[in-house]
Amino acid sequence: MTEEKPVVLVTRKLPAAVEARLARDYAPRLNPNDTLYSSEALIAAAEGAAAIVPCHTEHFSADVIARLPQETRIIANFSVGYDHVDTEAAKARGIVVTNTPDVLSDATAEIAMLLMLGAARRAGEGERLVRSAGWRDWSPAFMVGSQVTGKRLGIVGMGRVGQVVARRARGFDMEIHYHNRSRLDPALEAGRTYYERVEDLLPNCDILSLNCPATPETRNLLNAERIALLPDGAIVVNTARGALVDDAALIAALRSGKLAAAGLDVYNGEPDIHPDYRTLENAFLLPHIGSATRETRDAMGFRALDNLDAFFAGREPGDRVA
Ligand code: DGY
To answer: Relative to the CA of 111, which of 45, 63, 240, 257 has its CA 20 to 30 Å away?
Structure first.
């Protein structure tokens, strides 16, 4: 007699190769229409599921976790960020939580570079001008931005993504300064300048890239007081989480000219972002596509499944975060 395959609730439509592997090894409940679950619908859909494979679009608050069925034993996230899961509540219920680190570092660092360049060189404004048939002329004063080459890049969060951003930025001869919870080993630090306090990093950044996870400690990390510490005309780039930024403070600094520009891929409350961002010519905006490449989305799915496989084989999942 063959053993029954564990039921896995998959909250969003995943790449075909990932869903094929799920169907081979598990009894997946897929979401072919990619409909966003409400918390109530999520709890109902989880009935009888031993595992859930969610994205950051589903929120596992303490209340949702308390109401998950008794059978649910693992939340294997299709994401590196897991701020959408109350890990303490999961631990208290004995639910294992995993994420998908490493596999999206290159893709996310590409978007960080795109945001830096787009913000510094006014790419959004330029694109809007061409599309709206508003481009009339060329002159030496036309659409002048700032160069990123040779500038000082400050990175907050020198984890996997931050380190790739630093390496890519070296291709633009940028000087790398960073703040991290702990200083990197000399081999990894590779001559970059470390600041124990984020406040000491900020005055040394022509461009600031946020690459740390959203936690209660990093919420609103970039607030009005810290923005004031950046040099006038600095640029801010965020590919991590919207929660790191105090929107009102960033918008005020973009309006006043304290900051030259911002490049954002992530937002508080996304996709219902602070409406003022849409009105700012100097905000270069993308819709949370840091990991959106075919290669990376496959790799994220396979990594989530590796964690499930380990769990159901009685091994410790490689990417356990709770
Ligand atoms: C991640 O993996 O955390 C990305 O932001 C997509 O969820």
So the answer is: 257
